[in-house]
Structures are given as C-alpha cells and as structure tokens.
Amino acid sequence: MARRPEGPPPPPVVQRVRLRFAKRGRLRFLSHRDVARTFERGLRRAAVPMAYSAGFSPHPRISWVGAAPTGAASEAEYVELALAATVEPARLQAALDAALPPGLDVVGAVEAEGAGLAERIDASRWVVRLPGVAEPELRGAVAELLSRDVVEVERATKDGRRRFDVRAAMVL
Asked: Cα–Cα distance between 117 and 32 in angstroms, integer?
C-alpha cells in the first residue's frame, strides 16, 4: 500500500519570479547552503507566498543557478522562486531585501517567463583582481592561457588528487 501524506495537496504555482542578488562584504564567506538557509528565513520574514513541494517533507520551491564559491563576492547571483499567489516583483524585491541581512542584497526581480533559469544560463563573467601584478604582465599571461587548447590543474578531492582541464570551461 502506497503511503500518502495527510491533508490536501499544496496550492499550485501561479507565478515564478527571478531574482538577482549580490553577496557582498563579510557575507561573501557564507557557503551556498548558508545563503540558501538565509534566503528561506528571509522569505518567511517577508511573508512571500511561496509554493511548496508535495510529500512528507514539503519545502519551498526555490531553484538556484550555480553558487558563488565561499569567500568570493558576487554582484550577480540568480535564484528563481515559485509562488502560490501573484506578487508584484518590485514589491517582492523590496520586502525580501529588507528581510535579508546587509550583504545579501536583492538588486533585481522580474517575472520569470519561458524556460527555467538553469536552461538559460551557460556562462558567467568573473573579475579577478591581482594586486601587485602589472597590467602588461597580466595581459601576456592571459594571452598565453587562451592560446592553449588544454590547461590542466590538480585538485584534492575526497577520492584523492585529480587533474582537471580548466581551459575547456573558458569562453570568450
């Protein structure tokens, strides 16, 4: 016999809202999971009418696209929210931004249309600052990097050290 949770199913999704947020200052040291938990608390504080998954452990329907590495600041992180009621994106942005701690700043909100965010993003742009490296030296190093077909780096993983081709992930 199949187990079913008690009670009615959750309300359907009536709107999807795409948010752009920044991770700044000391909050750049938050892990992705910490950011997700902080957003969930902020959504509750801002009384955002979230749509929930069905099942025995319902959770808010939130879609994250990638994650800024712990320690990296970001001006353009994206998340998509599934809502159970229609909300004006600008009002949601203001309410959620007020409910989040300074350093996690909601900088944009639009109604999501078409394909999901994960299917739409295929690259990201990074700005890397290297204090003490002269610009001509840096330009030469970047030109050398981009001229190669393969650039392997070695990383420690839980299964030991592995080599990865980082050049394949770079687009111009």
From this structure: 17
